[in-house]
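User: These chains co-purify. Model them together.
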Amino acid sequence: MFDALTSAVSSAFNRRGSSLSVPILDGALKPNNLLEEAPVLVERKGLEDIAVSANGEIYVACGHDVMRLAPGAELRPIARHERDITALTILPDGVLAVGLGASVIVGSPDGSSANKPVVVNHVDGQPLNAVTALHAAADGTLLICDASAARPYSEWNYDLMEKGRTGRLIRYDRAADKATTLASGLAYSFGAFVDRQGRTLVSETWRHQVDQVEGGKTRPIIPALPGYPARIATAEGGGFWLTVFACRTQLVEFVLQETDYRREMMRTIDPRYWVAPALSSGIDFREPLQTGSVKQMGILKPWAPPRSYGLVIRFNDDFIPVYSLHSRVGGRHHGIVAVAQRDDDLYVLSKGAGRILKLSASRIEAVEAAEHGA
Amino acid sequence: MANTYTNLRYKYWPDHIFGELLQKQWMETVVPLLVLVITALYFSSRIDNFISISNLADTLRQASELGFVVLGMSLVLIVGGIDLSVGSIFALCNLTVLYCMNVLQLPVGATIAIGLLMGGFLGGINGFLIGYMRMRAFLTTMVTLIVFQAVHLMLNFKLAVAISSALPDSDLWDFIGSGSILSIPFVVWVFALIAIASHIFLTRLRSGWRVMAVGGNRRSAYNVGLSVNRIVALSYVASGVFVAISAIFYASRLASAGADTGKGLEITVLTAAILGGIRLGGGKGSVTKAVLGTLIILLITNGLLRLAVPAGASRVILATILLLAAALDIRWFKNRHKAVEEFYVSPSYLELPQLAPDATGPASAYALNDRLRHVETIGLGEVEAPEDVILDEEDNLYCGSRHGEIIRFFAPDYKRHEVYARIGGQPLGMTFDDKKNLYVCVGGMGLYRVTSDRKVEKVTDETNRSWLSVVDDSRLRLADDLDIAPDGRIFFSEATVRYEMHEWPTDSLEGRGNGRIICYDPRTNKTTTVLRNLIFPNGIVISSNRQSILFAESWNCSIKRFWFDGPKAGQVEFVIRDLPGYPDNINRASDGNYWLALMGMRCPAFDLAMRKPAFRRRMSKQLPGDEWLAPNINTGCIVKFNEQGQILDVLWDEGGVNHPMITSMREHRGYLYIGGISNNRIGRLKLDGADRTFVSSRHAYV
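Assistant: Joint model of the two components:
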């Protein structure tokens, strides 16, 4: 009884409550080095998204360009846009959909006039602002994540620190040329997916959860993730890959409660040096450091609080995590924002390192099976 | 404006004192004292003449009688037991004494002796059963409570008439009962004497310490060879004797042999002891607490009586108080360290000069480079935590290790090493004197010396205590770096007086002037504090003018000069006030300038936090230590500066591949040797154009 009383008192006084705890990496999320040790296929500045077409072509969004991944890991530009590409997908009939921040362009991959490109920039009277992810459903409709009405995609960390709740999930029906809002008021929509049963999912990044969208309502179907979920991609054999672009830390959760500090930080400090999750870290000494991240005897401990992290989680059809791929603290392959699978080949895009990694799904599963069998 | 307010608020309001007070042992006595004062104030506001002279004498008389029993109970509680049978022992002793005095007409001396023996015997029964037969104290004394009470009832039935029909004729007996010396009742004098004796026994005598030890941890006490059984048994005997003393005074005052004598005494006494702060679990308690508890309980019972509260109700009130006190006692002892933790860390306001965005840009004095990236490493993986390095005339290299040793690497290749000396604490700053004695600051221990024939000697481990400090700052907690002045005086820094060495990140979070500079004078063998309230004073070097020292204030990102001699003696001035990182050791360069190690770099988020003490306080409370915001010490940097504080050269290991957190460097015959307290290697870098005859251990003034 006393304990219950004291815990009630402490939560009232905002003391060391459960509000600041962060889920730990355990079970299917047990750390490994699969991402860190994965072979690097491509290294290039500005990599943003990756998509696989129905006929098995891999397309990559990098800076202003859409490129096709040719054999031999060569990137061949096929289309150039005026702005940085923020999202990319390929519709079942081979038509490319490209997000350019405040608009989405749906057109043929080679720019031929067979299909005149369509531009979507207003939905339900509200302009698109931060298109972060596109997903082509099997029925030919296109899901658009418009993550924030307040901040462009490049200022995502402002949206986090301002506790942005202005994300939308939009469905665009190409045949009817009609866009409808499926859900709004999302805490950053950064990934959408329609699974084999036709259920619609959306990553609600700042709430650390994946929602199921049904009849205009959302409900958390994968709650309490240890990181910030991003884009989602189909996995061969059912289920999906969920990318997590950074892991949560108690310090960031704490700073999110500290309005005064957070406001002054946003006003006076370069966003690169904020107390906030990052796509990569350890490069500049002006980045904040946590006590646990101090190098001891020449080693940065991999279990130190992660400012940046590399994580991809494989879920099955029942939304249960099966296994995960990691690049831990001190590693390079952080800030994973996109994944594409073609047969056995898994392409993982690390925005933090500016690299595309190539892994073998069957090998990962063999390693995981050995790990759990033992 | 807001910042100025915060600054003043944190400058003058002593936040840190609360945690320091809580840490003190005597704080546990302050709480019952406060309760006593509040009780007295409450009742005197409700009752006229509650505290008058006559009333006071009466209260003290009762208090002393009760106090004896509380003392006995406290002793038993301290040993880790409990004595519920005090009430029945009291009644039996009372009856015995009255029988001896009134019926047998024995002399007073004999009566008292018999009374005391009776108490001792009855207590001895408890002691034998609990101490030697290893029975449970609670159950045993409850049983004896009932048995003794039954015996008392039987005897009382037979003797009561005889006792009340005769009156003793003894002046001495009357004096014991109601006499006064200097208008203070006799019983109060006796109680005061016995209380003082008990206090001396518990705190100053070996046997008292043994009693405390048995209560603190029975197994450990047994393991160190104490006869636990005997001590436990004797504590019950003592309790019995104390009860008997009380009963003698009671008998002499009232001469009544009622059947109700001593009934419910155990509750009153237990409440008094626990209210006073004597721990139910044993091992903690003092005479002061017993006395305070007694006074509180007496004021409450008398007050309730005067307020005409029905007897039943007042017992309920007492029982409730006992329950609350016992619950509080358990909570407090379980959570005391947490409470101290909560209050102890008290960040202050620290505004550093604004760091320009291009402070380390290519055009700045601190332009980034990778000159430390490709150093040779010495002893990689063989040495842990070499905070400081130094080389002797024969080029052998000395460094500390976290195992409490000084390691010597042999010239010329530094492949072989040996343990030069074992000290036991982490060696930090080092310096040689003219006779090749190695002086070392040792974390947690003080200033030590390894003589030229490798004998370890303590130089000093204490300084003068400052009067206004709550924390005892006479002991050296974190002696950090040192240098020897031309006249032989040793100046050394103590980084913080509030934390141990491994807790330095917490000190960085506080950013208060917790450190000081201390001077040891070998001529008088005296240690004195020369400068106080410095923000983590770290590296120290004697300046080339031989009249001042340069020292680094780490969290303040500055280098200061302190004049210990000459016309400016006693003055402190800034040399560098806007370093882009946190300075550590300072040592001389061959060209007359100074090398400075930067253990870490400033980052804007931490700088902002230093201007937000309340933010840091909440952070320290809500987050585990590993999650705290820290200065960025994963980058290595060494700079060279001159007497005026201009930056002449800078060496970087950005990203800290070989040398994160550089804490020291020494120039020696054209090379720079680099140490780091969190590192497992020593770096060696060839310096272009440096004086190849310069020896790091030789002093500038020689």
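The CA atoms of residues 277 and 307 of chain A lie 5 Å apart.
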